[in-house]
Structure formats: C-alpha cells, structure tokens
Amino acid sequence: MSLCSWLALVTLIPVISSTNPGVEIKLTTKGLEYGRQLGMASIQQELKKINVPDFSGTQRVSPIGDVQYSLSNIQIMNVGLPTSAVALAPGTGVTLSIGNAVISLHGNWRDSGFFDLNVNQLSIASSIAIKSDDTGRPEVSNTDCTATVGSTTVKFHGGASWLYNLFSKFIDEALRNALQKQICTLVVDAISDLNPRLKSLNVVAQVDQYAEVEYSMVSSPTVSKYSIDFNLKGEFYNIGKHQEPPFFPTAFSLPLQDSNMLYIGVSAFTTNSAAFVYNRAGALSLYITDDMIPKGSPIRLNTRTFGAFIPQVAKRFPGLMMKLLLKTVKNPEVTFEPNNVTVKATGTVTAYAIQPNITLTPLFILDLETSVSAKVFVSGTRLAGAVSLNKMVLTLGTSYVGEFQVRSLDSILQMVLKVAVIPKLNAQLAKGYPLPSLGKMELVNTQLQVLKGYMLIGTDAHFTG
Questions:
Q1: CATH 3.15.10.10 occupies which residues in the chain?
Q2: How far apart are CA 293 and CA 289, in angstroms?
Q3: Which portions of the chain are predicted below pLDDT 70?
Q4: What's domain 284-434's architecture?
Q5: Residues 258, 264: Cα–Cα separation, whole Å
Q6: For the chain, what is the mean pLDDT?
C-alpha cells in the first residue's frame, strides 16, 4: 500500500479524551524514513497524471511579425524525484518536501513537428494536518502546499522549428505556469486519497467468538522532534456488548528509543480487560473428563483413584467414572513486572460421579487459588502467549461425602491442571489477538520486553501490498 499505508499508520491520531490509554504507540524517525522510501513511488505516479491542455495563440516575433503557434498532445514522459524528505513538525503534524525534481514532457506543434520540455529543480513543500473523525479513526488534510519550478528548457524539432525556437522563452513560461498550477492540486488529491484507506485500520478487531479488541483513539497525539506518540483505547469487549470493566487504565509512557520503526506498549489494563470479558462470557470454565488424561497415567478420573484419598467416595459410588468442573469465580488478575508476567486466578473445582444413566452426582467443591507464569511473544501481527503453573492452593468449600483432607488431593489436581487444563489454555493463547495494524503489514525484527505495568514491543514494519 506504499505511502498510503505508511501515512495511515503515521496518522493514527486519537480523539481528545481524558481517558488513559491501554495501548501506546511511538512512531520514530526511522519509521518515517521507511515511509518516505515507500512514498516516493506513489508520488511519482501521481505527478505523471499532470495534464497540460492543448494551447495556441499568436506571438509577435521581431523582425518577422506575428507568428501563430499551436501545441498539442502534450504528455509527461518521465518524473524524477532524487531528493525528498518527510519530517515531524513538533506540535503540528508531518511535512513533506521534494527537491531537485525533474519532469520531462513531449508534444506536437502545428507544422507536424514535435517538441521536448525539461522541467528542472522542481521543489514541492506540503504540510499535512492530522485529526480524528467521529468514529475514532484518523483523517488527514493538506494545510499548505507550494510548488516552485527552478528552470525549464524547451526545444522544437522538425518543420519550421527554427521559427518556434525564436520565441521558445514565451512558450517555455506558458508551459511552466501550466505545470506549476497542477502540481499542488495533485499533491492535495493524493493526501485526500489517504482517507478511504484509513478506514481499513482495525479500530475494532475480532479476536474469537467471545471477544473483540478496540483500538479507537483516546487522546490527541504528541508530536515531538523525534517521534509521534499516540494513544489507543486497547480494551477488550464482549462482541456486541461494550460493558466497561470495574477498573481503569493507569497512565504509562514509553521510553525514548529509536532503533526500531515502531514501539508498541500494551498495558496490564488491556490484558485484564480480556480476563474480564472472558470471565463474563463464561469462557473460563472447563469440564475435565478422563479421556483428557494421558492414557499412560496411573491416575484416572474415577471413584477408585479418588477413593484412595477419600475412602467414602469409593464406598458410596463404587466403579464410577468422574468429571471435574473447573471455573473461575472472579476475574483473573494479570500483573507485569520486569521480565515477569504473572496471572492469579481464583476458582472452584466441582467433582461429580457419573451415574450409569449419565446424571451427575456432586461429590465435593474445592476452592482453588492458582498462580501461573506467562511467556508472551509476537506471532505475525498478533500478541500470543503460553503459561506454566507456579503454585496451587486448595481448600474445601463444600463436601457431600463428609470431611476429608484436602491436601491429599494436591498431587491429583496439579496433574490435572498440567496435563488437561494448561495445554488447552495454551492452545488458545497461541492463537493470540490482533495488534493495531493496517493493510498488508508485517512486523519484522520484533523484540518484546516485559516492564513494570506494561509490555514493550519494538519492531520494524514491512508492507507487502
């Protein structure tokens, strides 16, 4: 998507609000330089659209007198843009400048001859203003444009070309004026053409059947000499139901770094809003059955295995298979500390005996406190992860089979979590959720650091179309 894609990323500028962001993005001067490289090809194509209409008239040429002239079929043959720059205008937006540009034209004159016009030392300067539309998406406009032609040379060939060459300076100036009037118009049009493409940004990105993540903008950008810092909501919602969680994002800021094109900060608020959404949707519950336990394991989900630790289970329900229901009872809590992501979850484990008629008879309910460590990584343009069990604490909530020592079930429940629950959880986490992106963008040279309160992703970007 070249210039359009990259300027779209540059212009992710938030709606003014007092809300702290869940996600912050810093676009560095290295990123702008990549955008410049992409953009020159697009601007070059735009300038090839210059249309110089046919024109004719009469010019007095001493000592010959009045000479009629007619120029037609004027076409752009080549556009060269050897020098260009995109820069940040602190507190304002982005400036685009092009210098030493060259445009070559070819056309016909009335006596079946032809002419060549070379425009040299063309310079263009444009200022781009950035704001947000009413949907939280970015919108750009040109606030100023100047185009200056340094010099032109025209040469007529064929027929009575010697006569046209006598007043070539007049025709040269006429052609120069015709060009100069159109250049800024094309630049303004090119900038306006970005806006439909900006609508393709994943402001609301579906994650799965339960959740979507919103990346609408929550505050105006901070444009400095070195970067554009902008703020996104970065909040998960149940699909179709945007209920706010009972907690709020806290302010954080990204460190000043410039070795990558982009820096993306994902706060603990974002991940905790995901936990809120999935818990509210009932997605953090799981029935665990014996077929989820490895076949070679000596521990089975049946009354015989559990009866070894709780004799009354085997006595009252001999020879029955069992089923466990694991579910959270409040929102899991995600915390970020340097080089460490921890998730704490509070839940219950309800054990059932499966009767021959497939009805479930409750045996006991355990209260469960768990802590897991998470490894987080970027996969494509998605943020993914995997967890491993740190610790688990069981207490007895309700027993339908009498009192028993809960600690005796520690080894069974740890095994169940490790072989049945965590693999399913990791399979889901490996799918990840979308990061802010646009078009056919790929993230390359990506590194991820876990800092206090947020994760920092440093990355370069590549557009494939």
A1: 46-198
A2: 7
A3: 1-18, 59, 61-65, 67, 111, 159-168, 465
A4: Super Roll (3.15)
A5: 12
A6: 87
